[in-house]
Specification:
4-stranded parallel sheet, metal ion binding, 17 strands, N5-carboxyaminoimidazole ribonucleotide synthase, PreATP-grasp_dom_sf, purine biosynthesis, alpha+beta, 9-stranded antiparallel sheet, binds adenosine monophosphate, nucleotide-binding, Dna Ligase, domain 1
């Protein structure tokens, strides 16, 4: 599914990323560290990736003149999120290597296609049904049972575009609340924990899985990741093996994240695929021999993959806009409280609730201790105001 054009681009070649958010920014920073020139196609000047890029094309990502200009400057192209116009990516792949390929992105940008892909490849996931009309929702309730989660097929992230349906009487309002658009209905999973695995796969099929991350969410948004996840060697191996086989089935060239639910019996169910680096892999910047962003650079440019083992266990917490509610967080208090804390801010203007503004990482021989330390540092950001979050 990736572009068939061979790639062998050594530094200082010019690499391009579509999307101006924090994932694009960290890709660019990894590329620049290796001596590449790195640019971005973004919607506006003040986006996180544009601030650090060597060059930028500012335009909607499906405008043909912008795509021409982007392809002129980028010798190989990647994406920082999956909601990129598939026709635009297909057009670009006629001009330049595009990794991941447009079909991989196309599958993962729509939950109906993604679930069908999982079903077709017999990859374990929660029971689900397509819902494109209200009668189909009634059928889905019968097929998967209640409670269920109704999720819009496209444009959903961080819990947006999804609603839990408890009773058959709630179906009508759930359908209306999501705007009567194509959805998937998914059985509610009483999971024990949520984990994820990031894998990188080169054009030659060589692949590497990072250690498993244990993810905790708050209000459907990732709150913290601990790596390695304390799920034992069998679940670890199964999660990594399954993620590698998903990458192969997608014919992925690039980086892929597989998010799982772990049930009480230790079974794995795939929740979501993302053909790119992921928030749960941010701690690999400091904690792994090769970060997820460097792997993205390597797979894009045709360099061999780096090893993806951990230097030390680590934990990461997100810094959401809520922390700015009463003004700028107290950075020096947080960093004074623990000299091992690494601060990442994405340069976003406007801290609204739920918006990912940055993250903190700490390495510690004991992963649970890492989580305690990084949470304590986050509390210190607002402690003087007496409203710290855990
Ligand atoms: P998603 O956007 O699909 O990754 O969902 C965001 C979060 O909502 C997940 O990480 C879970 O915490 C929760 N969630 C989503 N789907 C389900 C489900 N079928 N059963 C239980 N919790 C879910």
């Amino acid at each position: 599914m990736s572009s068939g054009l061979p790639v062998s681009l050594d530094p200082p070649a010019s690499l391009g990323v579509i999307g101006g958010g924090q994932l694009g920014r960290m890709f660019i920073q990894a590329a620049q560290r290796m001596g590449y020139r790195a640019g971005v196609l973004a919607a506006s000047e003040d986006e996180p990736a544009v601030q650090v890029a060597d060059w930028a094309v500012i335009a909607p990502s499906d405008r043909l003149s912008a795509l021409h200009s982007f392809a002129d400057q980028a010798e190989a192209i990647t994406v920082e999120f999956e909601n990129v116009s598939a026709p635009a990516l297909r057009w670009l792949s006629g001009k330049r290597p595009v990794r991941p390929g447009w079909k991989t992105v196309w599958v993962s940008q729509n939950r109906l296609r993604e679930k069908s892909f999982l079903t077709r490849h017999k990859i374990p996931h929660a029971p689900w049904r397509p819902v494109r009309s209200e009668p189909e929702l009634a059928l889905a309730i019968r097929a998967v049972g209640l409670p269920l989660v109704l999720k819009t097929a496209s444009s959903g992230y961080d819990g947006k575009g999804q609603v839990r349906v408890e009773r058959a009487e709630d179906a009508h309002s759930a359908w209306l609340s999501l705007g009567q658009v194509a959805c998937v209905a998914e059985a509610w999973v009483d999971f024990e924990s949520e984990i994820s695995v990031v894998v990188a796969r080169g054009a030659d099929g060589a692949a590497q899985a990072f250690p498993v991350g244990l993810n905790r969410h708050r209000s459907h948004i990732l709150d913290s990741t601990v790596m390695p996840a304390p799920v034992g060697p069998i679940v670890t191996l199964e999660a990594q093996t399954l993620a590698l086989s998903v990458a192969q089935a997608l014919e992925l060239v690039g980086v892929l994240t597989v998010e799982y639910f772990v049930t009480a019996t230790g079974d794995l169910l795939v929740n979501e695929l993302a053909p790119r680096p992921h928030n749960s892999g941010h701690l690999t910047i400091e904690a792994a021999t090769t970060s997820q962003f460097e792997q993205q650079v390597r797979t894009l440019s045709g360099l061999p993959l780096g090893t993806s083992d951990l230097i030390r266990p680590a934990a990461m917490v997100n810094l959401l806009g809520d922390l700015w509610a009463d003004g700028e967080p107290d950075w020096s208090s947080a960093l004074r409280s623990d000299g091992g804390i690494k601060l990442h801010l994405y340069g976003k203007k406007g801290a609204s609730p739920g918006r990912k503004m940055g993250h903190l990482t700490v390495l510690d021989p004991d992963p649970e201790m890492a989580l305690d330390r990084v949470q304590a540092a986050r509390r210190a950001l607002t402690a003087r105001r007496g409203n710290g979050s855990p």
